[in-house]
Amino acid sequence: MGSISFGGIGSGIDVNSIIDAIVGAEATPKQAAFARRESDIQLTLSGLGNLRSALSEVRSNLFALTLPSAFNNKTASLSTQDFISVNGGTSAQPGKYDIEVESLAQGSELTSQIFTGGGSTTFAAGTLTFSANGKTFDVVVEATDTLEDIQAKINDDESNFGVTASVLNNVSDGVDTGSLLKLTSNETGTGNDLVVTNDNAALDALSTNLNLDEAASSASIKVDGYQSVGDSNEFKDIIEGVTITAGVVNDPGETTTLTIKQDTESVKSKVTALVAAFNNLISTIQGLSSTDENAPGPLVGDATVRSVESQLRNALTTPVSGVSSDFNSLTSLGITTARDGSLNFSTTRLDKAIDESYSSFEELFTADDGIANRLIDIVDSFAGTTGVIAQREESLNGQIDRINDEREQLALRIESLTIRLQKQFGAMDALVAQYNNTSSFLATQLANLPGFSSGKSSKDD
User: Fold this and answer.
1) Are 203 and 123 in contact (CB under 8 A)?
2) What dihedral do alpha carbons 380, 382, 386, 392 form, nearest 10°?
3) Cα separation of 299 and 321, whole Å?
4) CA separation for the pair 27, 419 (Å, rounded)
5) What is the CA radius of gyration of the chain?
6) Tell me, what's the pLDDT at 354?
7) C-alpha closest to that of 344 among 352, 353, 354, 333
8) Under a CB-based contact definition with an 8 Å cutoff, are residues 59 and 296 in contact?
9) Which residues fall in a coiled-coil region (predicted)?
């Protein structure tokens, strides 16, 4: 607990105010200096953080242009969506392909005879085995199972590979009226018909005596007049990297045109995003280094800012060695530097580079000395985990730690000074009080002496 001071009681002097004034004169200038220094450092840290953020945005857009896959994407389009659908195409060679759907793949369909007892007809106990395309599953039939029960058992069997059972009621073949069992298999392809067998001849009506109403068949398409047949409606890699799914059969001789071309729009969008990110960086740098007296930038005159801008500008304008065409720099793509340091972008010039020399255009960005890798190296040297900005932030945070240490040391000195002053003024106060008491005592004693008077002498009467 701190001591309680009643300074000035003996002397009548406001000792506490004097102590506060002395302590304030010692502490206030230093505390203000600490606050100014810390404010300046925090302002610099904030500016460096903004610079790092803008550089990181540039880096993310640059990284997208270092990957060869960014330049190898293709787009696939159809003249009509009515007959086929396509997926993939990123690894296909550009070109046009005429595709005709001759037939679709389908599974087999089996039906039983008509049971005049309807859906409640029962059969003998036994096991039905369903097979197609090398797949199989069994259904155990109880003697009490009705036709509808057997339908449910087939559909609910966990091993069912794709057989759907349905009971058709109130149907007639011209002679009998009742219910029948219909089985549909999703195993497509010629020769992959559904086969049902049993272990009890009493179940022949639900197995070996079924009618094959629809045989399983294969799909057939033609690509540029060349036929391809498959067990399913999906055709993979007839055109490398493309999956064609047949949906509707064309009229004879009718085709759908599949066009595969280089996805230049995605590349252009990446270059456009890079230019926008770079211009945002330049705008950030201008704000950070502004010399406006009313709103000076937090990094005005900062060497790091000047170095970032200078190195990036040089990297942007320096041609890339080894590129075998005239498109060997950003300038050759129509990306030029304006007076304020931002980039101007001509899509016409970029389109020309893409159309005339796409491989060189790709190399300009993806080569080891390419624009993207070159700029990433510069950005990382400043904004990386061990870059210039990180080192400066570590140093500035160290300065804040030292300021806090100095604050603690000042607080200890002020506490010591306060205690010392309280003791000194306390001693003075006690001494003055003693002098006052002595003076009062002497005055009282003198006043009591015979013939002593504090008034005028008799000669004045």
Assistant:
1) yes
2) -170
3) 35
4) 14
5) 48
6) 81
7) 333
8) no
9) 393-420
